[in-house]
Amino acid sequence: MSSSPFCSWPVVLLLVLLCMVARESNGASNNVKVGSISKVEDADNFHIYYGQTFKVIKNAIDGKSYLLIQNTSRMAVRTKYCTSRIKSYVIPLLNYSVDTQSSQGGIPLLGLLGSLKGITSDAVASPCVLKLLEAGEVVKFEKGAEEVSQFAAHFISDTDQLQTCNFANFFPLSEGTPLQRAEWIKFLGAFANLETKANQVYDAVKASYTCLSQMAAKRTTSFKPIVAWMEYDKNFQTILRFKQFLSPTYIYAINFVYKNLGFFFRWLMTPGGGVWCFTKEPHKLKFVEDAGGENIDKSINKITYNVSDPDDLEALHAILCTVDAVIDETLSSEPQNYTKKTFLDNINLEDNSCFAFNQSIWRYDKRVRKGTTLEDWHDGAISQPNLVLADMIEALFPTGNYTTSYFRNIAKGEGVIDISSDMCDRDASLPLAPTIPACG
Ligand SMILES: *[C@@H]1O[C@H](CO)[C@@H](O)[C@H](O)[C@H]1NC(C)=O
Ligand SMILES: *[C@@H]1O[C@H](CO)[C@@H](O)[C@H](O)[C@H]1NC(C)=O
Ligand SMILES: *[C@@H]1O[C@H](CO)[C@@H](O)[C@H](O)[C@H]1NC(C)=O
Ligand SMILES: *[C@@H]1O[C@H](CO)[C@@H](O)[C@H](O)[C@H]1NC(C)=O
Ligand SMILES: *[C@@H]1O[C@H](CO)[C@@H](O)[C@H](O)[C@H]1NC(C)=O
Ligand SMILES: *[C@@H]1O[C@H](CO)[C@@H](O)[C@H](O)[C@H]1NC(C)=O
């Protein structure tokens, strides 16, 4: 072995490694090719692999590999895959459309609204998308319409539909924790060579989330506040009864169908006594834990409570007596009319003075799109779970100092904010900076 350290193999290897690391971390290189990469750290349902002139996203949602071919490579003009295993897309996407009946969280944060050209409904929670729609920059077309084929990609998260070659399954809601859902911003970033931006946003959101949860964990209260996520259903009894056997994905899909085709179910099922149930969706329980609270017992959230049944009602009231904060997720077609009184009526109670949560009854529909049941909770909140966590911490440990983003306290008569295009006060084609609440 040579005595000069610069000639020894281990050092050469080390230098090569260092170069690779430097190349990865110095992602802002102007050489678009594969200048920067995203590494999926938390999410379970997709992975990204990088080649010189292409990337591959392995998507567990549809079991396919998406071959993303750089437009500068020769492969871009020669290759087109659309098989049961592989789909190909030429990137960066010149344009794309989104099935807006599902989440699009992350698009404004990446500054990708400029190439958004089509949406399937105007029930969107982003004021700037509404503005682009009004200006004719974005067109609305019916779900399933032929127009969809003209876009370089069409992002969907309602996987139960006929998919053509340009469809891409973007499904953050399939993940179990808030951060895993937020990390899907890297999936979108890959289609636009915006890895650097996507990594920055995710790192900032994750750091904020982590800081807030560490701050919450340091609280020294003798008892952790107990939180119940609960939902009342007047009409949707049959499926609700089986909810405990369903995965969050299915529950999301069912809620989605219910929200959009609710009239059909109402016609199909005769309303009787409504039932209450407690959530067991993992990401919601995680928010409570990370905010320094405690979820109601697991054995309880398996059960549904029929308010017409006196025994059930008594049991429900007894459980509620142990709870410090309630998050009422009940679907409402008129969120502005869902008040504390609505909640008390639904739990069959005139007076809640005996309940510890009488000052803390929350809903996540603070930001809603007027005339629809769409809440920003199902959209923007997915890519910024740090804001949800900050809301949750304020709900559990009120300071009166913090203005919540998604939660409103109906016990204190807080109302809703209607999302409209005039709330877009920025250049929509520029990235929206993630909001980072004070921490520490
Ligand atoms: C590739 O995409 C970039 C960014 O949209 C664009 O500027 C460039 O003209 C495209 N190149 C080709 C060969 O299409
Ligand atoms: C979208 O981009 C494709 C190329 O990927 C182009 O052929 C098509 O005309 C564009 N469509 C719209 C609506 O801009
Ligand atoms: C609730 O109880 C009432 C009265 O016992 C009954 O008519 C109704 O079918 C029940 N609802 C459900 C969903 O079980
Ligand atoms: C809901 O509230 C609005 C006023 O905000 C009122 O005009 C409307 O009648 C209410 N709807 C119901 C069903 O009470
Ligand atoms: C809320 O409950 C507390 C006891 O937990 C009670 O002293 C207070 O009067 C109640 N307030 C309302 C508005 O019911
Ligand atoms: C409210 O905020 C001010 C300034 O940010 C701070 O000094 C005060 O302690 C806060 N109050 C509470 C109850 O946290």
TrEMBL record:
Residues 1-27 form the signal peptide. Keywords: Signal. The keyword Signal applies. This is BnaC06g27290D protein. It comes from Brassica napus (Rape). The gene is BnaC06g27290D.
